[in-house]
Write a structure and sequence with these properties.
Number of strands: 12
Distance between the termini: 43 Å
Bound molecules: zinc ion
Order of helices and strands: EHEHEHHHEEHEEEEEEEHH
Strand content: 15-25%
Shape: globular
Largest sheet: 6 strands, mixed
Oligomer: single chain
Structural class: alpha/beta
Strand order of the largest sheet: 3-2-1-11-12-9
CATH superfamily: Metallo-dependent phosphatases
CATH architecture: 4-Layer Sandwich
């Protein structure tokens, strides 16, 4: 029996919130995991994109999020506030006071991110199986069965993991959304097609301000939340010209 159950932490949407990321990684270390997969949006919105990208080097998978896509190419579908954060983030990754090689290593890391990954019959994306980088699968989509049917039709695997909406939970092919609190923070995969949203480390929007991540052992998904020093995170925002609102939303997790 032993040797079969690898424990993998899956994180997403760090959004340059280093305080949240460090608290999350400390919690993950205590859980005895074998690998860490990151589903994208390491950068964007938050004050410490360089430091967060440095942590990515140690991860076992880094997928491309729409915010990485936006700094590499063009910000598509971004509002004015998000766009200004994209511009500021781009500047941060090219700061002239850092050695040129250091800057280009960060850009290479972002440029090397793939948009999806399949392993042992499990799909990993940032957005959705149909549009791995940009499509949002919202909780309200359970009232849009055609959309969910198309998304699940694009998913060849029984199980997929995504981020992007910053809302943790399980979407099933039967148009249900299971909030982690409804299922005791655990879900056993394999019975039906599911899309599992791992939530967000650095900018939760599901009303719980704590950082979110999951651990997956190939059979069971455990949902975890981690308290972190939000006051300190807000202080770091205030050292930048980033809009105050991006910092204050962390307090309520909205
Ligand atoms: Zn995001």
């Amino acid at each position: 029996m032993e040797g079969l159950s690898l424990r993998r932490a899956i994180i997403s949407d760090i959004h340059a919130n280093l305080v949240a990321l460090e608290a999350t990684l400390a919690d993950i270390r205590e859980q005895g995991v074998d690998s860490i997969y990151c589903l994208g949006d390491v950068i964007g919105y938050g004050p410490q994109p360089r430091e967060c990208l440095e942590h990515c080097r140690a991860f076992d998978l880094n997928l491309l999020g729409n915010h990485e896509e936006a700094v590499l190419f063009e910000p598509i579908g971004f509002n004015a506030r998000a766009k200004s954060a994209v511009e500021w983030t781009k500047e941060q990754l090219s700061l002239p006071e850092h050695p040129r090689e250091e800057n280009s290593e960060l850009w290479n890391l972002v440029g090397a991110m793939e948009s999806s990954h399949v392993e042992e019959g499990v799909l990993y994306v940032h957005g959705s199986p149909r549009d791995p980088t940009r499509e949002y699968v919202f909780v309200s989509d359970i009232r849009n069965p055609e959309k969910l049917a198309d998304i699940f039709a694009a998913q060849d695997q029984m199980t997929s993991f995504a981020g992007h909406t910053h809302t943790a939970g399980v979407f099933t092919v039967d148009c249900e959304f299971l909030h982690p609190s409804q299922i005791g923070n655990r879900y056993q995969v394999g019975e039906k097609k599911v899309l599992i949203n791992v939530g967000s480390v650095g900018q939760p929007r599901d009303g719980d301000p704590r950082a979110s991540y999951v651990i997956f052992d190939g059979e069971t998904v455990e949902f975890h939340r981690v308290k972190y020093d939000i006051e300190e995170a807000i202080r770091r925002f205030r050292e930048t010209p980033l809009p105050e609102e991006l910092a204050l939303r962390l307090i309520e997790g909205r």
